[in-house]
Design a protein that fits this description.
Keywords: Endoplasmic reticulum, Membrane, Signal, Transmembrane, Transmembrane helix. Its main location: endoplasmic reticulum. It is found in: Endoplasmic reticulum membrane; Membrane. The longest helix is centred in the C-terminal third of the chain and has 80 residues. The protein contains 2 helices and no strands.
Length: 140
């Protein structure tokens, strides 16, 4: 027996079984007279809900809150995916920019080496020409 309760002329109850399986409902009237001959009527309305159902009015609000929370969570997941993609894109752009910068730095280094070589070559050539000029004019 899960529940045994006495009611007056009118009664209403809600019962939630905490164990799954087969359940039997037994109803008994406490009247000592036979209702047909006494002019009274016995009326029984039985509404049985099976499965998971809301027990209180707050449960429906909780489900609405869960739906709102779920939609917010889906939105946050979408934003996280977007941010992750943006970070990956920026990482690729930064890597490409770094490669271009290193290539440019290498070219600038070689250009500076070539300019230094040309400057030294021209300087040595000028000194040789000037020395030959002074020897030809017999100033040295």
């Amino acid at each position: 027996i899960q529940m045994s309760k006495r009611y007056g002329n009118f009664g209403k109850f809600t019962f939630t079984a905490h164990a799954s399986g087969q359940h039997y409902f037994c109803f008994q009237t406490n009247s000592t007279r036979f209702s047909v001959f006494a002019g009274e009527r016995l009326k029984l309305h039985l509404d049985v809900q099976m499965g998971e159902h809301s027990i209180g009015p707050n449960v429906d609000r909780t489900k609405d809150n869960l739906l709102t929370l779920e939609s917010n969570l889906q939105h946050l997941i979408g934003q996280m995916t977007y941010i992750t993609r943006q970070q990956e894109y920026n990482r690729e752009k930064e890597e490409h920019f770094r490669l271009i910068s290193e290539e440019t730095n290498g070219k600038v280094l070689w250009w500076a080496v070539i300019q230094t070589f040309i400057l030294l070559s021209v300087g040595i050539w000028q000194m040789k020409r000037l020395k030959d000029f002074f020897i030809a004019k017999k100033l040295v």
